[in-house]
Amino acid sequence: MIVSGTTAQALVPTADPSWLLRETGYELLRESTFETRFAISNGFLGVRGGLATHLGACRAIPPRTYVAGLFDTPTPDSAVPELVPAADWLQVRILLPDGPLMRCPNRSSRALTLDMRRGTLFTEARQTCNAPLDVRLRTLRLVSLDLRAIGMQLIELEIENGVSDLTLEASFGPTDFELAPERADLDLKAWRTWRSGRSLAIAAAASLQVDGTERQPTARGDLSWSWSWTASPGQVVSFQRIIAVTRHHSVDVHSGARARKELAAARTLGWQGLIARHEAAWAGRWHCSDVRVEGDPAAQAALRFAIFHLNGAVNPSDPQVSVAARALTGDDYRGHVFWDTEIFLLPFYTLTWPEAARTLLMYRFRTLDAARAKAAAMGWRGALYAWESADIGDEVTPKQTVGPDRKILDILCGSQEQHISADVAYAVWQYWRATEDETFLREAGAEIILETARFWAARAEPEADGLRHIRGIIGPDEYHEAVDDNAFTNMMARWNIERGLDVAALLQELWPETWDGLSERLGLDEPELIQWREAAQTIVTGFDPATGLFEQFAGFSALEEIDLAAYSGRSVPMDVVLGRERTQLTQVIKQADVVALLALLPEVFAGRAAETNFDHYEPRCGHGSSLSRAMHGIAAARLGRSETALQYFRQSAAIDLADTHVAISGGIHIAALGGVWLIAIFGIAGLSLRPDGLAFDPQLPEAWRSLEFRLHWRGRHLIVTIDPAARVFRVALETGSGMPVYVRGSRYLVSADEALAVPLDP
């Protein structure tokens, strides 16, 4: 039995509006946008934000549930795995004798409220027109951040007027992705994927109370219940359902046992206990990651929305999976993992939730053999990570797609967009610098960096000019394919090789036994390290000392210049406006490329080179990717252009929070949300990581009266406050020993006994 109790208090969102996202009314054309924006997730389960089926005059499409790591190929001849939607566990029908109860709800009364503080979705609707009963309907939905296998649904129906027989039916809808049924009991169903050998099991319990008295079902079936009674004015009906979902990476005839065990633990807590523990888990996450902005409510809302989805996207207990491009909120990109995770998400996790960051990097370590296999298949040594990865790390980028003109287009990213290996190494190194997690470095991180460095030393081939070139590549700017010496790729490759040498030296100095074992297993000797040094010194960078510019790739400067300002009113990307073939012959850039180097490797831009390159490439970028504006925002802030940075901040946030991007129907842009945090912390607050501590060069926009945020650094928890009005920069240690902090180039020490306050010049 689910522990009983009143649902009224639970169905009331947080009072503080700064924690709420709310939409009222119903518009069919915007429904898929709402489903994305109001999605909830815990890193294992993700549920889109649509209303439960048949609860209102919405389209009868169930809110999809996704289970992390549940991949299969849709047909026997398909080579591309997809994330498999699970069955609709929220399905409810409330019936009068002559049809559905909510056949004529007041559309203006329909409301969706996402309580980001509590990690809970609320819905509300009323029916008051031409029906036997006037009713008020309220629902609550959550996937537990404390017990990640658990989902919960509460429904409260208040009868305001009328008398009628009423029936409530709760069931599980079918999944639209074919799964093979394995088992069907009253409390459990189990399925398996046809081709990937994965098992899914869902156990469930449900109960219904009328005026606080529990009613026994009048009918039962496999994960289905039905109750019938006579409704009358003043009656309050409460329905509760708890589910437990388990995923297994092999077909298991006992796959339901764990689901039943998880459900039993949840039922012992009861729905009130589940809510309490879920909210406590969210309170813990917000304590470590909240960012507070005074003076700019829109920026505050954007940061809360971004951090909410970032915290809900990862499961620190599951190294079998990573965060997909749309997290667990939609179908776009088939649930595949890109460089987005390492470059746009890992900084947030590393500095606010290192356990989650470590887990995501362990996914890359677990898939290292697949990266080695890809490199070997293409004729190189080392590890080349998949551009698109699913659960086992194989390259799963589709070979073709249909273009805007309905023509079949070849997709070359899977073979040519190779900077992913340097991106993974970058995330590993940043994690190591921020945490000094020796166990991770010795057991996983060092091998990733060494094997990716080995790849680049092989990939950058020496030529007659005495330099090493990387030819036939795609950089972040995917408008230009098969280019030579892309500046971003080459510079990141050089950086990766240099970090490989650093890791080798570090292991030799501090952990010689680890080095001996690892170097022997990898066949890595001193002559190869000497080759790496030569490679790092001779890779072409594209830098022109005369102009101070890094040429984006060889020949880029000779391409046709396009005035993007003349196309400022466009509603589609520039490659659609100009056509794919012409775009490749122009200097139109899809997304930050050299500008991304400004954000990731600012140290390579000496003197005025940073300003020169930003000013050259910014007007050439069409921002055809949701990732682009984050890099521009960071770079602009570091140049002291805080208002420009704020503009990019708002544009990044608008991708998911405004109704200007139809692509949101396929899921949230989790990397753009990571970019919102990056612009605020690495850009506007001016954070950078030093070998001995953290450095800040704050550049707050005029509207921001103050900025406060929390960071985790080598076992310490810090609270950072930037207060331009008081002209002070403060750092307080919540936990941990004293450490150096750099503010605008000056070194200070913050102690556990007393907060640091540094005067700020205007």
TrEMBL record:
<protein>
    <submittedName>
        <fullName>Glycoside hydrolase family 65 central catalytic</fullName>
        <ecNumber>2.4.1.230</ecNumber>
    </submittedName>
</protein>
<keyword id="KW-0378">Hydrolase</keyword>
<dbReference type="InterPro" id="IPR011013">
    <property type="entry name" value="Gal_mutarotase_sf_dom"/>
</dbReference>
<feature type="domain" description="Glycoside hydrolase family 65 N-terminal">
    <location>
        <begin position="23"/>
        <end position="246"/>
    </location>
</feature>
<dbReference type="InterPro" id="IPR012341">
    <property type="entry name" value="6hp_glycosidase-like_sf"/>
</dbReference>
<keyword id="KW-1133">Transmembrane helix</keyword>
<feature type="domain" description="Glycoside hydrolase family 65 C-terminal">
    <location>
        <begin position="689"/>
        <end position="749"/>
    </location>
</feature>
<dbReference type="GO" id="GO:0004553">
    <property type="term" value="F:hydrolase activity, hydrolyzing O-glycosyl compounds"/>
</dbReference>
<keyword id="KW-0808">Transferase</keyword>
<dbReference type="InterPro" id="IPR005195">
    <property type="entry name" value="Glyco_hydro_65_M"/>
</dbReference>
<dbReference type="GO" id="GO:0030246">
    <property type="term" value="F:carbohydrate binding"/>
</dbReference>
<dbReference type="InterPro" id="IPR005194">
    <property type="entry name" value="Glyco_hydro_65_C"/>
</dbReference>
<dbReference type="InterPro" id="IPR017045">
    <property type="entry name" value="Malt_Pase/Glycosyl_Hdrlase"/>
</dbReference>
<feature type="active site" description="Proton donor">
    <location>
        <position position="478"/>
    </location>
</feature>
<dbReference type="Pfam" id="PF03632">
    <property type="entry name" value="Glyco_hydro_65m"/>
</dbReference>
<dbReference type="InterPro" id="IPR005196">
    <property type="entry name" value="Glyco_hydro_65_N"/>
</dbReference>
<comment type="similarity">
    <text>Belongs to the glycosyl hydrolase 65 family.</text>
</comment>
<dbReference type="Pfam" id="PF03633">
    <property type="entry name" value="Glyco_hydro_65C"/>
</dbReference>
<feature type="binding site">
    <location>
        <begin position="339"/>
        <end position="340"/>
    </location>
    <ligand>
        <name>substrate</name>
    </ligand>
</feature>
<keyword id="KW-0328">Glycosyltransferase</keyword>
<keyword id="KW-0812">Transmembrane</keyword>
<dbReference type="InterPro" id="IPR008928">
    <property type="entry name" value="6-hairpin_glycosidase_sf"/>
</dbReference>
<dbReference type="InterPro" id="IPR037018">
    <property type="entry name" value="GH65_N"/>
</dbReference>
<keyword id="KW-0614">Plasmid</keyword>
<feature type="domain" description="Glycoside hydrolase family 65 central catalytic">
    <location>
        <begin position="304"/>
        <end position="677"/>
    </location>
</feature>
<feature type="transmembrane region" description="Helical">
    <location>
        <begin position="668"/>
        <end position="689"/>
    </location>
</feature>
<keyword id="KW-0472">Membrane</keyword>
<dbReference type="GO" id="GO:0005975">
    <property type="term" value="P:carbohydrate metabolic process"/>
</dbReference>
<feature type="binding site">
    <location>
        <begin position="590"/>
        <end position="591"/>
    </location>
    <ligand>
        <name>substrate</name>
    </ligand>
</feature>
<dbReference type="Pfam" id="PF03636">
    <property type="entry name" value="Glyco_hydro_65N"/>
</dbReference>
<dbReference type="GO" id="GO:0033831">
    <property type="term" value="F:kojibiose phosphorylase activity"/>
</dbReference>
